[in-house]
UniProtKB/TrEMBL annotation:
GO terms for cellular component: mitochondrion. This is glutamate--tRNA ligase. SUPFAM superfamilies: Nucleotidylyl transferase (SSF52374). It is found in: Mitochondrion. Its main location: mitochondrion. Keywords: Aminoacyl-tRNA synthetase, ATP-binding, Ligase, Nucleotide-binding, Protein biosynthesis. Residues 34-352 form the Glutamyl/glutaminyl-tRNA synthetase class Ib catalytic domain.
Length: 414
């Protein structure tokens, strides 16, 4: 049960004369169709950063009359958490930022939307890259790769593959494969280039040197794709025009640009969103309790308050206004106003915004119970019954609560 007990206890503590007085007097006042995707991995709870990515994709699509796609990147079976994908979809519904197509939302013409159901396509494209000389089988054992990493670490060098198997003749590689030799498929990155340019809608023009690109694994030894291969193939096949994702994926951008080029596909436009930080400016860890969206859902925060708070994590509306509903965010949102620097997650700001949105839900005429206000009353009723099972129904009568809640709503702290 969401933690609405604070309102319950505040109402119980009020004297009858005070209740009647306050209840009587309180009046609280492009050139192609835009297609974006949110592509989480179902490996645990939804992080605030994940919700921010989903929200910015939703706002960008709405603002441009485009499509918002939910794709589930579930090829990492070792980290897969059963029920995680469903929980992500439930939170998107709770937040009222539902995709227009995709997993858990009716599918669509570009499915399947679960990567685990698209493995044949990834294998086909990996084989095509090998045939075209853009990729190659690698037979290096985990032991050899471990020794290589240790050696590079001792020398203070980045941990990159040394391209040991790159020059193996095709017929020799095929002979080993036919004999059942374990192998992966690696991308054959250019040995030299003048720089890989990524035009980013948040960060501008970024040029990556050779050190940022190695012969990345595309297909693992279990025949499942890595993020790099699956993401590029799916973004193309699903017609994704813009990729809005977290800054942690910025280092992958040059690899993806080269993959798009190797497959003769036009890349989407990229926008890498800033990292989320704690109040002490350290990176917000997914393992921290207050990083989970469910933490706020379970405590009874309003969805519009959480969305309002998350929207301002890295986006500057260029105004002194801080309280927005979802429609207002759609009208105001622009990627041009997304900052490069990290955004601080301050839970006290979330609490303040929640109080402001609670006030917005209280109608001026307390005799008329709106649907949004009824949700609060229902939540308080449930919390009251759970907190004090012996409480009479008359004490939590809908009309009674409708007049009493405004008296304490300004001090509500989930």
């Amino acid at each position: 049960i969401p933690r609405w007990e604070y309102l319950v206890s505040a109402l119980i503590k009020m004297r009858p004369t005070c209740i009647s007085r306050l209840a009587a007097t309180s009046i609280i006042a492009s050139s192609c169709r835009v297609r974006v995707r949110y592509a989480p991995s179902p490996t645990g709870y939804l992080h605030l950063g994940g919700l921010r990515t989903a929200l910015f994709n939703y706002l960008f699509a709405k603002r441009n009359n485009g499509d918002f796609v939910l794709r589930i990147e579930d090829t990492d079976r070792a980290r897969f958490v059963d029920g995680s994908g469903e929980q992500i979809a439930d939170i998107l519904r709770w937040a009222r930022i539902e995709p227009t197509e995709g997993a858990y939302f009716g599918g669509g013409q570009h499915g399947p939307y679960f990567q685990s159901q698209r493995t044949d396509l990834y294998r086909e494209k990996a084989a095509e890259l090998v045939d075209r000389g853009e990729a190659y089988p690698c037979f290096c054992s985990t032991e050899r790769l471990s020794r290589l990493r240790d050696e590079l670490s001792r020398k203070g060098m980045p941990s990159t593959y040394d391209r040991h198997c790159r020059s193996i003749p095709k017929d020799e590689a095929q002979r080993r494969i036919s004999m059942g030799a374990p192998h992966v498929i690696r991308f054959k990155a250019p040995l030299s280039h003048d720089g890989i340019v990524v035009e980013d809608m948040v960060r501008g023009k970024i040029t990556f040197g050779s050190s940022h690109v190695d012969d990345a694994i595309l297909l693992k030894s279990d025949k499942h794709p890595t993020y790099h291969l699956a993401s590029v193939i799916d973004d193309h096949c699903m017609g994704i025009s813009h990729v809005l994702r977290g800054e942690e994926w910025l280092s992958s951008a040059p690899k993806h640009m080269l993959l798009f080029k190797a497959l003769d596909w036009a890349p989407p436009v990229f926008a890498h969103l800033p990292l989320l930080l704690n109040v002490d400016r350290a990176k917000l860890s997914k393992r921290q309790q207050h990083a989970s969206v469910s933490y706020y859902v379970d405590r009874g925060f309003l969805p519009e308050a959480v969305i309002n708070f998350v929207s301002l994590l890295g986006w500057n509306p260029k105004t002194t206004k801080e309280i927005f509903n979802l429609n207002e965010l759609v009208n105001e949102f622009s990627l041009g106003n997304v900052q490069k620097g990290g955004a601080v997650v301050d839970e006290s700001r979330m609490m303040w915004m929640n109080r402001e949105h609670l006030r917005r839900r209280v109608p001026e005429n307390l005799g008329i119970i709106t649907d949004e206000y009824a949700e609060i009353i229902f939540a308080v009723q449930n919390a009251a019954k759970a907190t004090i099972p012996s409480l009479s129904g008359a004490m939590v009568n809908e009309k009674r609560l409708a007049k009493l809640i405004p008296a304490v709503v300004g001090n509500f702290s989930p």
